[in-house]
Write a structure and sequence with these properties.
Blueprint: H1 20-70, H2 113-116, H3 127-137, E1 146-147, H4 157-166, E2 172-173, E3 177-180, E4 211-212, E5 231-235, E6 263-264, H5 288-291, E7 298-302, E8 307-310, E9 327-328
Parallel strand pairs: 3-6
Antiparallel strand pairs: 1-2, 3-5, 4-9, 5-7, 7-8
Length: 350
């Protein structure tokens, strides 16, 4: 009769431990797999951000169309929704408190976002709360920067700073989208009404040496020209200046300085444009990653409703940023890449 041999409980007989070499091999394999997966995960995250950004831009362009439908095709901005607050109209400074009475009013004269989504029931009545809300609600997921309010800004800056402190907010989220300035101005300065007020025109900004718009242009959707080639707004960032400390901040004044926090000129300028320009008004290119934030490209919404990704060079095309029949200038600050493109009708300023 055979006897069965039992291994005592707790005995290590028959169990072989991993050798040090085997452990190192396993660790190395895991490290290699992580190294392979992380870029893929990063690419997937970036792709998700870009898809979400495009979807948000399509919602916003629809809002611009809705505003135009209700307002004779006018584009919201300093000559329409922001007229009573615009910086050329200091005599009506008493109108600034109106910004805190209605959720559909702009938070700055250049603000085109709030009027175009004025029916949003979540828009706060308080102007400072609405300023914070608009950059949170309409934020590109890829825009992670938070910035302080420029403390030396004009009227409206200090109330915004106090609101942020009182509500324990970590600064403003950097703006995600900017409208080209030229969509908000007339082709020339002209009388607005029978008194002394005049419409804000391109000539007031000294930009005619770069892009001269048709003198008859008015800020209306129906006048932009070939809508499929005209950018209504695009990824952007305001403000950046390496001469300041900190170099990133936001203009929260009522009237906005240097085209406000909601607009900028266009990428055809090397330095005048502090958002899309390569040197960003002294920023030495620090603005580029903040603008071309989708794997080195920017999302741009066109007036026909489509959204496209543009490389830095593609975004320098002057045709995108001004109405049809504008004339391309010869200013010394024009980006070299912009000179590679033509513009309707393509003749330079003499």
């Amino acid at each position: 009769m055979s006897k069965t041999k039992h291994t005592p409980r707790g005995s290590q007989v028959g169990i072989q431990a991993f050798t040090l070499i085997e452990l190192l091999v396993v660790v190395a394999v895991i490290a290699i797999l992580i190294g392979l997966l992380l870029p893929a995960l990063g690419q997937a995250r970036n792709a998700a951000h870009q898809i979400a950004s495009s979807s948000l831009q399509k919602q916003m362009i629809a809002g611009l169309f809705n505003y135009g439908t209700s307002n004779s095709d006018w584009i919201p901005g300093i000559n329409t929704s922001g007229w009573r607050f615009c910086r050329e109209n200091r005599a009506r400074v008493q109108n600034f408190p109106l910004m805190g009475q209605y959720g559909s009013l702009p938070v700055q004269a250049y603000d085109w976002i709030t009027p175009s989504v004025g029916g949003d029931e979540d828009a706060p009545i308080n102007r400072e709360a609405r300023f914070y809300w608009v950059f949170e609600r309409f934020a590109d997921p890829a825009m992670k920067e938070r910035v302080p309010v420029y403390s030396q800004g004009g009227d409206g800056s200090q109330p915004m700073i106090r609101w942020l402190v009182d509500n324990q907010k970590p600064g403003l989220r950097g703006c995600s989208f900017l409208m080209p300035l030229l969509w908000q101005v007339f082709g020339e300065t002209r009388r607005k009404d029978a008194r002394t007020l005049e419409a804000t025109g391109q000539d007031l900004f000294g930009l005619t040496g770069m892009l001269r718009m048709p003198r008859a242009f008015a800020p209306q959707i129906t006048r932009v020209g070939n809508a499929a080639l005209k950018i209504a707004f695009a990824d952007g960032f305001r403000f950046l200046d390496s001469n300041q400390n900190p170099p990133l901040d936001a203009d929260a004044s009522y009237t906005g300085n240097l085209w406000g926090t909601f607009t900028n000129f266009s990428p055809i300028s090397m330095t005048i444009d502090r958002s899309w320009g390569r040197r960003g008004g002294g920023g030495s290119g620090l603005n580029i990653p903040l603008v071309y934030r989708h794997s080195g490209r920017m999302d741009a919404a066109f007036w026909d409703g489509h959204v496209a990704l543009l490389t830095p060079r593609e975004s320098r095309n002057p045709t995108f940023w001004a109405p049809s029949k504008s004339i391309f200038g010869s200013h010394s600050d024009i980006d070299p890449d912009a000179k590679l493109y033509g513009i309707e009708p393509g003749d330079p300023i003499p």
